Sequence to fold (457 residues):
Amino acid sequence: MAKKLFVKTYGCQMNAYDSARMADLLAPQGYGVAAAAEEADMVILNTCHIREKAAEKVYSELGRLRALKQNRRATGHDLVIAVAGCVAQAEGEEVRRRAPWVDLVVGPQAFHRLPELLAGVRTGAGAAIDTDFPAAAKFDHLPEEAGGRGPSVFLTVQEGCDKFCSFCVVPYTRGAEYSRPVADVTAEAERLLAGGCREITLLGQNVNAYHGAGPDGPDGRPWGLASLIRHLAGLEGLSRLRYTTSHPLDMEAELIAAHAEVPALMPYLHLPVQSGSDAVLAAMGRRHRAEDYLRLVERLRAARPDLAISGDFIVGFPGESDADFAATITLVREVGYASAYSFKYSARPGTPAADLEGQLPEALKIARLAELQNLLDAQQLAFNRSCEGRRLEVLLERPGRQPGQLVGRSPYMQAVHLPAPSQLLGKVVNVTIERGMANSLAARLADPHDELGADAA
Ligand code: 5AD
Ligand code: SF4
Fold:
């Protein structure tokens, strides 16, 4: 009987991409996809280490899986449990010390070795741990991705980060910046498009620092992200391009120009600032001031006036005063975010900020987070309401919760649901927005909905 694999993904979109690639890797070993751990012969937890809460969730899930494994063994079967991703990278052996029933620990740069590691576990060689580092080797060893991932897909073009923001584990878990060569990215994009996708989101921890080898062989001059975007935008079948996540320092003029000049590049940009206080930005090692960020947003909006901006914020960084926090609120008011993610500062072992004096009490962090989130929620709702009555193009990605309903995304990344026939799945259609709510838009098909250019296919 065919075996089944369940991959549970935590954290960022890069992990979501890696999880899909893990399934690709194990498919030739006879693993189909299970809908839940209860139905699986192997479970991979693809983990996130960015904040303490994310890492701790993994251990509670491992507790649950232990019971499942024991039940399975009582009936003469087994459940292989693997921990992948950034907790695996950061904690290595420690994972097995805390959860000895884990069979396999594999870091984000080594998961191409999953089949071998799994074979080792099966032959009783004992637990396997691989947290080797070079990202290049991994990409060279991954199989071609399976098609049929749906109309909107992720494509990792860059991994790792050299910025070393003082709060962040990424440079330690994902390693140094690595950019995939243009030719590899193009080939993967072409296969994804041949498999029916319409929208590609280029992924990287610091994606706008992309500098992949040019297509003229290994000596080809590196290309920046703007050149890659212009190139991919010309591929047949592609309707939409996005990229995430970007650092303000790497937002070069050429990339800003691409927002004005490349129609496939969607008017949405995730551009984290973390704080609006210069003192906190300096302590975070962000290497720019609040003013620089505001000027950058101005330049981006000059290039693309309707650009929707999203961000990440950390409140309660060590030493953050009331005035520092007020500066963040001021910056948020000035920018006007279409959406945003905000977090309480979480001290991560091994990062410089964890050893700073002036760690703040939890209650203060909670209060600041609530205030910031109230403002960001209000901005998001205002943005969604401002779309009421507008005609927007939506890529229909999946069935909605109600019968007869489809769900997709607007150019600005908003979730949009509308009554529509299922034949329109995977198409870009014109809709009229009827209602803007906190987290989504309600719409109806516009008349005509299927305009030339929106979906000529
Ligand atoms: N504590 C809280 N939030 C963090 N982030 C990264 N590291 C930490 C931390 N130690 C947030 C940042 C980043 C996002 C992915 O997670 O806002 O942009
Ligand atoms: Fe972390 Fe800063 Fe790199 Fe982003 S830019 S991954 S926050 S170190």
Remarks:
- The chain has three domains: 3-130, 138-315, 391-456.
